[in-house]
Prior knowledge:
By secondary structure, the chain is an alpha/beta fold. It has helices at about 55-70, 80-90, 110-120, 135-140, 155-165, 175-179; strands at about 1-5, 15-20, 25-30, 35-40, 50-55, 75-80, 95-100, 125-130, 145-150, 165-170.
Amino acid sequence: VMQEVAKNGEFDSAATDLLIRVDSDLNAVGADGSVISHIGSLNMGERTPVYYVSNAVAATNLAQWLVSQSVTEAVVASAKPELLAKVREKAVSVSGMLDCRSLPAETQEDWDEIRRTANAAWARAVLLSGSVSAEGVRFLRRLSFAVWAAASNATETALALGAGANGLLSQNPAQTVAA
């Protein structure tokens, strides 16, 4: 279960991965843009960082930082495939996740477009909205993509798990695991 970072040091013990929004100065920021701390000073324990970039400067700076720090156990994520590809081109040891939550994911054409976009961005994982279909998850998993789903309530958690998602993004990991 992945949890988005809201405050430094305050993570649910059930979270195995942390979604960290990264600004141009390599600060972890909240969804509202407020600075939490520099990404290098976050105390994540054994959790895998999933660094989320939204602009070209943040992507360039993150790629340089990942290489300079010899980071290998991390994931870089973005809703913008060109940014994801930019980071993955330089930081080849980290994995990539394409955020597809704003994309349609209901038909074979939608899944094909997600596959094409993720491949072009060098992503091996995709993050879908909580209303995922088993058919779409099976299709993407058959192509060796790890499929994550955002789950904001018990219904979405059950739907994503029933569809075969590999992981869940939740703000309440303990509740998600209990479901």
